[in-house]
């Protein structure tokens, strides 16, 4: 049902195809285009914003620079006039007065002042200086400067008033006002900043200075003063000053133009705002102080509140630090939640900063409006695209529905044809379609039905012939259901052994099978169910109704049924092999008889040889004693020499015969180990060098340049080389060539012996290695039996090598033996590769694992596993030299894993069990079975035997 729910109809399939192949790409393309439009518009806007911002900052900087220059010019003019005014005051005080002193009035508190406005300056002598100490002469000298003060005031619009303050609290100020009403009667002038900032402590250079903004005691509101000291020698007579009101500064600043609705503020060196225009009051949340709100006299200094200091405000503290660091520059600042662009420049020599500010949103207003316009155009494009595709999707849906209906009708017709063919109606009614491909499909289905009808008839005929052949060749057929554990038997086999022709449980077949063979069949069927094997091939003895035994060959293999992954069937045959068994038994009997005869012959030859050796040893020994006595007495020894030569020849003949007979009777066990070829050649050469020199031959030896090892049995290799060297000496000519050398040959080493004898005819070379074959040399003076080369070839083959020759008549012969190099993978056994043998022990019994480890200590390295799941990881480290397994612990699976690896079939497997199962013993090729509890000595002997067999020993 879940698969049915996952399937879709033809209409939906076509619609998905339209959407995936046509509509979605179109929508994607349009979306990408609109996205590109919006992104490009945004990129252009960002570029414009960046350009305008840079342009605005440049403009602000230029404005600040220009306006700062203007303010600097005005302030510089005021400063210059202040210095001029101080110089004039200094000269006036130095000259006595020539004008009569003006009339003064005195307050009740003792302050002297000018009571009327006579068109000149106003005078005020503070009561802080007693009347008798007031210097009226100084007052008269200063009166001569009133016209100068008037001219300076009139030519400097920014200057609100000019004044001179003396050290003894005298004040002369222009224009005139009622000083007695404005000043405190006991006013101490040196305590005010417009005086003490010019004294020697604050102005040691006696230069012009500007004060901070303060509240004017003269009643003109908030102002700043340009002051300059007046000295008489080193004595400070007083300070002159020119007052510039904040209102005047603001009025001057208001005449300066700033774009984008910006404004200018004036900041002194202490970061106090000296002039704040009305446009800036909202942003800084301040109201500029211009006038004096009360009529009370200013009795002490008063400066602007802390709120006018940029460094003490949280929103402008960073700006204050930036302004203090550089005389000019640019920055950004947030005021009232809005970003402002800032540029400033320094006004010299006062060190003030003229700061220009403009709202960033005002600067970018035009660009933002244009970007919004283009963004609206993009939204309109998106809306138009959505509307268009809604209409287009509707049309495509209707079109897809129409096409799917036409296709579905044709496909349903073809499906109906296939359905009828599936029911055996080979000639269904043909479906019609206007679509060429579907019409051809219907025609092909019709032809297919006809072919299936013909094939079905042929299949029925072939089935009948097959059943006929099966009945004539096999005794019966069988099927085994792995899931149901049931057998189904058919054919002549059922009637012959009186078996039911229907399905039957497996155990009901046991009474018809020999008791020794039934467990083997059960083991094979169990292995099929476990998935260990996929086919079986068993020879079983079935019991006929009369009680006789009949040999049957039971063969079968697993079949995977299509469409039924979980249902597996095993099918096979029963073949009568009773006659084959009888023939096999006859052949085995005759083979045993032949082997017994061969062994008897070998024993006879061996016995005769031993019998001959005893008298020969006595003859040879006594002949040697007699030869020694004859030599001492000087008697003739010719006869004794003949006896010694003949007895030596007979002894050699007996030795060769014994070796050959032992090879024929039973191949000897050779232990192949790495042998140093150069050392072996040197030893053999030295052993025969004296024999060669006796007959006038010089033995040359060409040893390997580097130490080279071959896999061989050292004793047998020495025997082969000495035999080849002896033959080369015997069959050589006087002064002929005699050479023992080596040459590499792939992964082998070829050791050869060359002689300068007569050579061997190519036609006779094939017979040279036959036993007792001397190729016509039997009647010559050269002694021999003809079995030496045959024995050498057999020994070479037993050492996994080979032997051959190359000979030319009249030139000589080269006999060689090839042996595998000891460092090649194909020749080095597992013991040589990995050191000590490696044994895997699979057993869930902890005492058993400890006993095995103790038994094999010093013999092999034991890897103990307690469950089959660990075997795969252990096999990744390489094949073991032996596997000890308890079949009760995933034993079948472990054996299957081992046999499934290349080379795993050669690993000996030993079963450990407390109760052996004959069925497993018959099915798996165990090398041995050990009963639990394990005998330690028995295990050590068995392991030593099996591990030795796994080494490169040859039989």
TrEMBL record:
Residues 607-823 form the Histidine kinase domain. Residues 536-589 form the PAC domain. Its EC number is 2.7.13.3. Gene3D superfamilies: 1.10.287.130, 3.40.50.2300, Histidine kinase-like ATPase, C-terminal domain, PAS domain. Residues 838-947 form the Response regulatory domain. Keywords: ATP-binding, Kinase, Membrane, Nucleotide-binding, Phosphoprotein, Transferase, Transmembrane, Transmembrane helix, Two-component regulatory system. The chain crosses the membrane at residues 21-40, 377-398. It is an enzyme of class 2 (transferase). This is histidine kinase. CDD domains: HisKA (cd00082), PAS (cd00130). PANTHER family: HISTIDINE KINASE 1 (PTHR43711:SF1), TWO-COMPONENT HISTIDINE KINASE (PTHR43711). The modification 4-aspartylphosphate is found at residue 886. InterPro entries: CheY-like_superfamily, HATPase_C_sf, HATPase_dom, His_kinase_dom, HisK_dim/P_dom, HisK_dim/P_sf, PAS, PAS-assoc_C. The keyword Chloroplast does not apply. It comes from the Bacteria. SMART domains: HATPase_c, HisKA. It comes from Pseudomonas solani. GO terms for molecular function: ATP binding; phosphorelay sensor kinase activity. It catalyses: ATP + protein L-histidine = ADP + protein N-phospho-L-histidine.
């Amino acid at each position: 049902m879940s698969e049915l729910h996952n399937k879709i109809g033809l209409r939906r399939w076509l619609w998905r195809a339209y959407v995936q192949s046509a509509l979605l790409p179109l929508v994607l393309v349009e979306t990408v285009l609109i996205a590109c439009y919006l992104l490009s518009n945004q990129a252009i806007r960002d570029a414009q914003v960046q350009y305008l911002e840079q342009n605005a900052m440049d403009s602000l900087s230029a404005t600040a620079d220009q306006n700062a220059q203007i303010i600097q010019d005005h302030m510089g003019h005021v400063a210059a006039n202040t210095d001029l005014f101080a110089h004039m005051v200094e000269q006036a005080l130095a000259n006595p007065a020539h004008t009569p002193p003006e009339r003064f009035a005195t307050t009740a508190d003792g302050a002297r002042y000018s009571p009327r406005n006579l068109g000149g300056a106003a005078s005020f002598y503070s009561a802080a200086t007693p009347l008798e100490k007031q210097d009226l002469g100084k007052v008269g000298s200063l009166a001569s400067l009133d016209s100068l003060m008037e001219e300076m005031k009139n030519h400097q619009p920014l200057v609100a008033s000019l004044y001179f303050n003396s050290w003894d609290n005298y004040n002369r100020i222009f224009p005139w006002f009622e000083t007695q009403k404005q000043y405190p009667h006991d006013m101490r002038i040196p305590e005010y900043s417009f005086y003490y900032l010019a004294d020697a402590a604050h102005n040691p250079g006696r230069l012009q200075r500007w004060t901070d903004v303060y509240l004017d005691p003269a009643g003109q509101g908030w102002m700043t003063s340009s002051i300059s000291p007046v000295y008489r020698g080193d004595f400070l007579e007083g300070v002159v000053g020119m007052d510039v009101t904040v209102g005047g500064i603001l009025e001057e600043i208001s005449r300066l133009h700033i774009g984008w609705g910006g404004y200018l503020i004036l900041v002194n060196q202490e970061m106090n705002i000296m002039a704040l225009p009305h446009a800036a009051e909202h942003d800084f949340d301040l109201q500029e102080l211009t006038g004096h709100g009360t009529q009370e006299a200013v009795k002490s200094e008063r400066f602007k509140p802390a709120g006018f200091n940029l460094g003490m405000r949280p929103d402008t503290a960073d700006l204050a630090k930036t302004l203090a660091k550089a005389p000019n520059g640019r920055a950004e600042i947030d005021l009232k939640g809005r970003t402002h662009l800032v540029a400033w420049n320094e006004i010299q020599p006062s060190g003030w900063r003229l700061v220009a500010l403009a709202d960033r949103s005002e600067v970018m207003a035009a660009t933002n409006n244009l970007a919004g316009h283009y963004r609206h155009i993009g939204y309109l494009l998106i809306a138009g695209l959505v509307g268009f595709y809604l209409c287009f999707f509707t049309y495509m849906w209707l079109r897809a529905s129409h096409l799917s209906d036409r296709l579905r009708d044709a496909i349903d017709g073809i499906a109906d044809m296939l359905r009828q063919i599936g029911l055996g109606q080979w000639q269904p009614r043909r479906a019609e379609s206007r679509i060429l491909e579907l019409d051809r499909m219907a025609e092909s289905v019709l032809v297919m039905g006809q072919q299936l009808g013909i094939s079905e008839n042929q299949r029925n005929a072939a089935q009948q012939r097959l059943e006929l052949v099966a009945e004539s060749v096999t005794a019966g057929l069988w099927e085994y259901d792995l899931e149901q554990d049931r057998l189904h038997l058919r054919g002549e086999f059922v009637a012959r052994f009186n078996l039911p022709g229907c399905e039957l449980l497996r155990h009901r077949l046991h009474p018809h099978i020999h008791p020794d063979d039934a467990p083997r069949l059960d083991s094979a069927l169990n292995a099929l169910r476990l998935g260990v094997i996929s086919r079986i091939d068993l020879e079983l003895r079935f019991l006929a109704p009369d009680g006789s035994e009949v040999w049957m060959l039971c063969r079968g293999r697993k079949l995977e049924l299509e469409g039924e992954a979980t249902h597996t069937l095993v099918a096979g045959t029963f073949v009568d092999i009773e006659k084959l068994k009888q023939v096999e038994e006859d052949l085995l009997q005759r083979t045993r008889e032949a082997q017994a005869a061969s062994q008897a012959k070998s024993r006879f030859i061996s016995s005769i040889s031993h019998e001959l050796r005893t008298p020969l040893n006595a003859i040879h020994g006594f002949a040697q004693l007699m030869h020694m006595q004859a030599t001492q007495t000087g008697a003739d020894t010719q006869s004794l020499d003949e006896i010694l030569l003949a007895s030596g020849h007979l002894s050699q003949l007996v030795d060769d015969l014994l070796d050959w007979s032992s090879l024929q009777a039973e191949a000897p066990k050779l232990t192949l180990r790495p042998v140093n070829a150069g050392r072996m050649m040197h030893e053999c050469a030295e052993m025969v060098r004296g024999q060669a020199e006796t007959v006038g031959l010089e033995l040359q030896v060409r040893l390997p340049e580097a130490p080279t090892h071959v896999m061989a049995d050292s004793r047998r290799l020495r025997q082969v080389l000495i035999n080849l060297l002896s033959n080369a000496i015997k069959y050589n000519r006087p002064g002929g060539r005699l050479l023992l050398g080596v040459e590499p040959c792939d992964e082998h080493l070829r050791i050869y012996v060359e002689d300068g004898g007569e050579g061997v005819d190519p036609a006779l070379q094939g017979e040279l290695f036959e036993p007792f074959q001397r190729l016509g040399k039997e009647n010559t003076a050269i002694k021999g039996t003809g079995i030496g080369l045959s024995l050498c070839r057999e020994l070479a083959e037993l050492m996994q090598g080979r032997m051959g020759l190359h000979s030319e008549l009249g030139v000589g012969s080269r006999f060689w033996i090839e042996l595998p190099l000891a460092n090649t993978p194909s020749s080095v056994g597992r013991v040589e590769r990995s050191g000590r043998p490696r044994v895997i022990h699979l057993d869930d019994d902890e005492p058993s694992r400890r006993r095995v480890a103790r038994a094999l200590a010093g013999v092999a390295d034991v890897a103990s596993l307690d469950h089959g799941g660990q075997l795969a990881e252990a096999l990744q480290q390489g094949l073991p030299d032996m596997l000890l397994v308890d079949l009760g612990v995933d034993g079948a699976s472990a054996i299957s894993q081992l046999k499934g690896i290349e080379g795993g079939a050669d690993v000996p497997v030993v079963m450990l069990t407390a109760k052996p199962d004959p069925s497993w013993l018959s099915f798996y090729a165990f090398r041995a079975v050990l009963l639990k509890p394990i005998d330690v000595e028995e295990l050590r002997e068995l392991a030593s035997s099996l591990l030795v067999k796994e080494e490169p020993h040859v039989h």
